[in-house]
Amino acid sequence: MSHSLKIIVGSKNPVKINAAKHIFAMYFAHHEIDCQGVDAPSNVPDQPIGEEQTRMGAQNRVAYCKKTYNADYYCAMEGGAEQFSYGAATFAYVVIDNGSEQAVGRSSNLPLPQALYNALLNGEELGDVMDKAFNTQNIKQKGGAIGLLTNNHATRESTYTQALTLAMAPFLHPALYNK
């Protein structure tokens, strides 16, 4: 192993911390990965509605982490939902920052039943709505809505991992992205 990489994740949620640790261990296989989750305010509603609010939540968490902690990379994931022309869906924005460059990525959409989306518009959080619909407890720190609605063929962590994997591209090829 060469030196240690310190990663600060703007959440204490183990699903988000594990996703970040996984992608940094994958991309930096010869480094020791010190990945820590911290409480970081999103400064958006607990259940963001719309792509803008969701992206801002992740960017706000990273900005707080950069201001408060010293690390090699900062990252945050923010789940949101939106009513698209083709139906309601949930998704996440991810942000990775190395102190000088920032990359924003987005997960794929998971179609949401309209009744569940309507509950979000009434102020409920998706995790709570899913716990009620599927009689689970604290699903947001486990497989999430994604796990429940795909019969665990995908999970909240797998979706964050994919989005973070893609968001790393600018850090892997800076000469191409900084032209």
TrEMBL record:
Keyword ATP-binding: no
GO molecular function term, any single one: ITPase activity
Pfam families tied to this protein: NTPase_I-T
Primary enzyme class: hydrolase
Co-factor note (free text): Binds 1 divalent metal cation per subunit; can use either Mg(2+) or Mn(2+).
InterPro entries membership: ITPase-like_fam, Non_canon_purine_NTPase, NTPase/PRRC1, YjjX_NTPase
Family according to the record: Belongs to the YjjX NTPase family.
PANTHER family: NON-CANONICAL PURINE NTP PHOSPHATASE_PRRC1 DOMAIN-CONTAINING PROTEIN, PTHR34699
Free-text function comment from the UniProt entry: Phosphatase that hydrolyzes non-canonical purine nucleotides such as XTP and ITP to their respective diphosphate derivatives. Probably excludes non-canonical purines from DNA/RNA precursor pool, thus preventing their incorporation into DNA/RNA and avoiding chromosomal lesions.
Protein name: Inosine/xanthosine triphosphatase
Species this protein is from: Pseudoalteromonas espejiana
Origin organism lineage: Bacteria, Pseudomonadati, Pseudomonadota, Gammaproteobacteria, Alteromonadales
